Hints:
Number of strands: 9
Strand content: 5-15%
CATH class: Alpha Beta
Number of helices: 8
Distance between the termini: 22 Å
Helix content: 25-40%
Order of helices and strands: HHEEEEHEHEEHEHHEH
Number of domains: 1
Shape: globular
Amino acid sequence: MRKIIQIVIVVFLVGCGSAQLKETDASKVSNNPEGVKGKIVGEENVVDNTSVINRVEVEKNIFSSSENISEIMAFLASDELQGRDSGTEGIEKAAKFIEAKLINAGVSPYFESYRDTISNFDKPAYNIVGFVEGSDPDLKKECIIIGAHYDHIGLLSGGEDTIANGANDNASGTSVVLELARYFGKEKINKRSIIFALFTAEEKGLLGSIHLANVLKTKNISLYAMLNYEMVGVPLVGKDYLMYATGYELSNLASVGNGYGGENLIGFLPKAKEYNLFKRSDNFPFHEVFNVPSQTFCTFDFTNFNHYHKVGDENELMDFNHMANVVNQSIPMIEGIVNSKTKEIHY
Length: 347
């Protein structure tokens, strides 16, 4: 996300499950005002009783877990990738990692390969684009895009640490999308088709998503909606919803999504409107090109993260339980959207 600010954390997470989800060992969702420092937190976690906290136990119907998220984040935000700047050796390693994840998930390439070489950047750079075809003969002609950018800003000068690892921005969103791809790639329960898009060069001015939106427009795809994940590595502070949607007031996405995923899944963050975050992430080019609901889900609330575009954006600050919860609560929402008989989301 392309603007900043900061404070402290109080978390409100809402647990919700879909009967179709699979179980793993992770059975609890953490609400820790200190933030889970890249660890799994169990019942021993104690919170200040002055905080507005609602601890939610999710004892079944879990697909993603802290372990799943940790494995992805450990690589994407590692020093080995040197900050994933577009056109570098580091982001090339990230691209290969993402491709392997899509292959293992049973997600097909959208193009001849997973790589969509962008045409508006001076170095070789690639969006990674996967596809899960819908099962309904008619509805599969429509599609939704689930996206996140996997690039970051690379190396910064000065100081002992020069690597801007980009854990929250946006290895976190990439990890969530890869987990969603793993679910839908394995289950194949979507009636509409799903495009999973991991964008390059977001940090250069949304170049990857601008390129892909225009390419898909030339293919005359029937795009229903674009759902983007950005900076979802730490929980919101003192909110009664799990994540907010940029451009909240522009569509009925929140009401539809909450109907499928739980009434406190998606909320409105005034700061997001104040800073016009709707135009600052990879949802926006699809809004401009297709004029369909295209919005970003985020849990960066301008108070809970102090390392935007800094070398301190590292895995130790991320809450993997929270991120797994974002995945698990997004699944029934996305299932509802891709399987509804009519297009329920609209501007």
